[in-house]
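Quick one, probably user error.
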């Protein structure tokens, strides 16, 4: 069975107020995480290394540094491979995007243009590696309308995330955005099940959900669209990120590493995890899953020699 054709909409317009002063002049995804890498590189690397052919980066807050980074580092190498990567800004008379659901709603024409089998709506704010093909296999194997990538987080930190309540088979039966009193994972008193902000959708279902959400006054995926989908009986499933396997990971790396770098403290911790010591918790030296196209080019050149 051929791999599904996936269209990716990367949500990269966040202001990142908790990262000030680093976001005084650029959006959160464009923040330099060290050694010439930007936060947005992680989601782009995951999409490109997974073979996603169409990637649109939805920008908003102070977008110029982000767009310049995409042009300088990503666009030309990907164009040579036949991969589309383009920034998207709010256009027309409607003004700025009002939220994540509104941003996707105003770009639904991209679904008609490419006619994908699946649509990936991914956040650009996190540090991790992920093979999207494995998540797609999970999604298709369950005949899901939508799939939400999920990780366990400590209950005391759950108020910063979208929290999932799932049945034993992974079907989502409840979703709360940044709840004051989150539900715990089954048989676990210390953790809640949190959304990573990465979603796969059937294109028709996505269009219907986004249109209904926006027409109903909603603007956000976590706060509005996902709870509406659960209430409406849509087949939503939680994909356990810890089951995802990426090539080239070293034995000393943390299994299923994922960090939300939304605060200066979290960003500092991630930088230490990436760059401190000879055996970092997340080792960027992975030629099988390069973080930027230049690294893939260097690996290919060495192989040719």
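Nope, works fine. Designed sequence:
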């Amino acid at each position: 069975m051929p791999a599904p054709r996936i269209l990716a909409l990367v949500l990269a317009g966040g202001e990142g107020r908790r990262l000030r002063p680093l976001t005084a002049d650029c959006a959160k995804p464009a923040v330099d995480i060290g050694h010439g890498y930007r936060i947005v590189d992680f989601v782009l690397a995951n999409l490109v290394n997974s073979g996603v052919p169409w990637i649109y980066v939805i920008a908003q807050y102070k977008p110029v540094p982000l767009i310049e980074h995409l042009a300088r580092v990503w666009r030309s190498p990907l164009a040579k491979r036949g991969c589309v990567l383009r920034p998207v800004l709010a256009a027309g008379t409607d003004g700025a995007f009002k939220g994540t659901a509104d941003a996707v709603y105003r770009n639904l024409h991209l679904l008609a243009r490419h006619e994908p089998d699946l649509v990936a709506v991914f956040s650009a704010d996190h540090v991790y590696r992920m093979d999207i093909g494995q998540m797609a296999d999970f999604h298709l194997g369950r005949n899901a309308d939508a799939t939400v990538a999920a990780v366990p987080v400590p209950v005391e930190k759950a108020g910063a995330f979208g929290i999932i309540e799932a049945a034993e088979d992974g079907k989502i039966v409840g979703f709360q955005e940044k709840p004051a009193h989150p539900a715990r994972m089954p048989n676990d008193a210390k953790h809640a099940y949190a959304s990573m902000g990465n979603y796969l959708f059937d294109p028709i279902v996505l269009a219907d959900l986004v249109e209904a959400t926006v027409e109903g006054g909603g603007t956000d995926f976590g706060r509005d669209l996902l709870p509406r989908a659960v209430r409406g009986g849509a087949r939503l499933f939680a994909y356990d990120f810890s089951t995802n396997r990426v090539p080239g990971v070293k034995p000393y790396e943390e299994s299923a590493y994922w960090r939300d770098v939304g605060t200066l403290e979290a960003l500092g911790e991630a930088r230490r995890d990436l760059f401190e010591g000879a055996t970092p918790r997340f080792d960027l030296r992975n030629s099988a899953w390069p973080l930027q196209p230049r690294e893939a080019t260097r690996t290919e050149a060495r192989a040719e020699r």
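DSSP finds nine helices and 13 strands in the chain.
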